[in-house]
Amino acid sequence: MKTAKYILIFLIALSIISCNRTQPGPTTVLIVRHAEKASDAEDSPLTEAGRQRAQALVGIAADAGVSAIYTTQFKRNRDTAQPLAERLGVAATEVPVNLQNPGDYGKTLAKTIMEKHSGQTVVVIGHGNTIGSIVEGLTGRAAPLGDIQYSDLFIVTVPPSGPAKLIKAQYGTGTAGNSMMK
């Protein structure tokens, strides 16, 4: 009888502990293309419009609970992330990409984000030719994103279970001259 009583107490305690254990919330990933660049040079800085767009990114993400920022090795990407990183005190993580042949870059980055930042909010500063594969890596399905503009904001929400959701929005001002470039 004593054994049964202890087993019952153990099972009740275990169920209480299990009930109090919080499940991770959804992982939210905000994906943007780098802001407007000054030239077609491989490592071009941002234009004034690009610097303004980088500030606009601060406006949309500063209160989103961002815990990580990912960029590529290019100055235009780092410069797009810098104002947000400084505002939040979050160092941007650089993940190099070969723009001529990005291969599985997006899917690999998506996997890294899900492994390291599950249940968190992450910002990714990508390129016109990497955003689609990042979205696909996060959602598990190809997404017809169209001609990716500097002003495009892709918000992917990955719940702990069930399918991921994708929202396409705009941020910053103006879309003139936003053709798909690397």
Total count of helical runs of at least 4 residues:
5
For the largest beta sheet, what order do the strands appear in spatially?
Answer: 3-2-4-1-5-6
Low-confidence stretches: 176-182
Helix and strand succession? Answer: HEHEHEHEHEE
Overall helicity: 25-40%
Q: Count of DSSP E strands? A: 6
> What is the approximate shape?
globular
The count of domains is 1
Briefly characterize the structure.
The protein has helices at residues 2-20, 48-61, 75-88, 105-116, 131-139, and strands spanning 27-33, 66-71, 92-94, 121-126, 152-158, 165-170. By secondary structure, the chain is an alpha/beta fold.
Structural features, described:
37% of the residues lie in helices and 19% in strands. With 182 residues, the protein is α/β, with parallel strands linked by helices. It has one domain: Phosphoglycerate mutase-like (Rossmann fold). It has a six-stranded mixed β-sheet with strand order 3-2-4-1-5-6, with helices on both faces. Strand 5 and strand 6 form a beta hairpin. It is globular, with a radius of gyration of 20 Å. The termini are far apart.
